[in-house]
Amino acid sequence: MQVAFVSGAHPSCNPRLLRCARQLAGWGHQVNVFHPVTDTALYSEDLELAAAGGWRSQVYFDWSHGPSRFRARLLRKLASRAARWGVQSIHALGYGIAELSRRLGEIRGHGLVIGQQEVGLWTAVQCLGDTRVWVDIEDWYSRDLPDAARSGRPLSLLTRLESTALSRADWCTTTSSALAEALSRTYDSPIPGVIYNLSHCSELPPWDGRYRDRASADRVSLHWFSQTLGPHRGLEVLFQAATRVPEDFEIHLRGRLQSQSWFDQVLPSELRDRVHLHPCVPNAELHTRICEHDIGLALEAPFCDSRNLTITNKLFAYLQAGLRVIATRTSGQLEILGDRQDLGETVAADDPDALAQAMTRMIQSHPNRSALPEPLPAWCWEDHKPLVAERLEAWFPEAGPGEAAP
Predict the structure, then answer these.
(1) What residues contact residue 145 under an 8 Å CB cut-off, 6+ apart?
(2) Which single residue of 63, 65, 117, 268 has CA 20 to 30 Å from 380?
(3) d(Cα 11, Cα 7) in Å, to the nearest integer?
(4) Can you say how many angstroms the Cα of residue 402 is from the centroid of all Cα atoms in its chain?
(5) In angstroms, rounded to a whole number, what is the distance separating the alpha carbons of residues 300 and 327?
(6) If pLDDT is split at 50, 70 and 90, which confidence band does 374 have?
(7) 326 and 188 in a common domain
(8) Residue 189 belongs to a domain
(9) Range 76-83, long-range pairs (CB < 8 A, 24+ positions)
(10) Residue 135: enclosing H or E segment and its boundaries?
(11) What is the pLDDT of residue 340?
């Protein structure tokens, strides 16, 4: 069977898509991933992952092509301005929508279309009635981002797309039970299935005991990773709290820094020798990099419904690496941590004093690691394989899911 994934970002930046695409390809399906190219280095990584995962990269928009880039930037800029006046346009969803729309016929020809992110949501809705459609809602798109960033967003359009997908798609999934139930209540729709942002436990490489990030093995190390390091992500509160912790420690931040001037402004001078920045690493390396640290930081700021209800990759990545976690009390993160003090501590968001106290307690109770971390296999992608296989067998009984990937 032919399966089309549609995303508005590089596959290498979307572990959730990669896990599912690889699984379906491992079951014998012909998997095409439709995506834009906005960075040549990331595209090279996309192609390597495609070759290793058994799926094909299908580029619908190439940023390096000058005329296409100019047209896409102009269309998105005009669409964002129009959104401020209440005019909704699909071009505000991402770059290359015009190019993607010309390939809708090709996409509809697949036996199953899986839409991810906003561009994938729009594409999936266009395919309703023509083929099987699975919409994977990673965030609550119409209720995401800070208020200042929402003025140029096509919120009414996103709301209509979400409502249509949740009511009419063959299957909808999302990242937490909290988000699934909220979406169902809001749109009076069936409750989406829940697929957590988990890695294959069987594929997590063992840590070799080497330190590549840490400046000192004698200090307790706290780790934070995200695609982007910038405002409204909890870093401001972390830095305030860190100045109030009397213990010795270091903080490691991994991601693309959105603004050096912002970072220099919010980082207190007394922390400059303790806070270390690291670039993003390929997904295959991330687990071992996390393993060398002691405490994971999941300080999501619940400034909108999406941030409050979803569960990000980082929380599970820390737990799968054997780290204890300090997390903010969002509805999504409480779904996993709850009263599980063995897994870490939860704190109120925007409370540097509470965060400082939690950091102090965990640093004091966490001696420097003398043994390799023990992974927590209670949460694995393998747990979700039967759910996906059951759907495929129901839709395509003549094909079945195929043999499980190794």
Answers:
(1) 153, 304, 306
(2) 117
(3) 8
(4) 27
(5) 7
(6) low
(7) no
(8) yes
(9) 79/154, 80/152, 80/153, 81/152, 83/151, 83/152, 83/153, 83/154, 83/155
(10) strand 132-137
(11) 84
DSSP string, 60-96: EEETTSHHHHHHHHHHHHHHHHHHHTT---GGGS-TT
Residues 155 and 240 in one domain: no
Strand order in the sheet with 132-137: 56-62, 30-37, 2-6, 112-116, 132-137, 171-174, 193-194
- Token match 């939860």: residue? 346
Q: Residue 279 corresponds to which tokens in the numbers above?
A: 């670039």
Greater confidence, 199 or 181?
181
Indicate the range of 154-163, 221-230, 325-334 predicted with least confidence: 221-230
Q: Does a structural domain hold residue 406? A: no
- pLDDT of 406 over the 80 cut: no
Q: Tens digit of pLDDT for each residue in 62-91?
A: 988 888 888 888 998 998 888 888 899 999
Question: Can you give the pLDDT at residue 351?
Answer: 94
At 299, is the secondary structure helix, strand, or coil? Answer: coil
Packing angle of the helix pair 235-242, 352-364 (nearest 10 deg)? 60
Same domain as 217, residue 141: no
Residue 404 domain flag: no
**Cβ atoms of residues 176 and 192 within 8 Å:** no
**Can you read off the two tokens belonging to residue 2?**
């032919």
- State how far the Cα of 137 lies from the Cα of 183, in Å rounded to an integer: 10
- The range of the structural domain enclosing residue 30 comes to 2-195+384-395
Asked if residue 345 and residue 246 are part of one domain, the reply reads: yes
Q: Is 206 helix (H, G, I), strand (E, B) or coil?
A: coil
Euclidean distance between CA atoms 129 and 136, whole angstroms: 18
Q: List the structure tokens of 120.
A: 């994938």
pLDDT classification of 268: cutoffs 50, 70, 90: very high
Place of tokens 């266009």: 126
Q: Determine, yes or no, domain membership for 369.
A: no
The total number of structural domains in the chain stands at 2
Q: What is the pTM of this model?
A: 0.90
Residues 271, 214 within the same domain = yes
* Residues 249 and 144 placed together within one structural domain of the fold: no
CATH number of the domain that residue 23 is part of: 3.40.50.2000
User: In this structure, are 109 and 258 located in the same domain?
Assistant: no
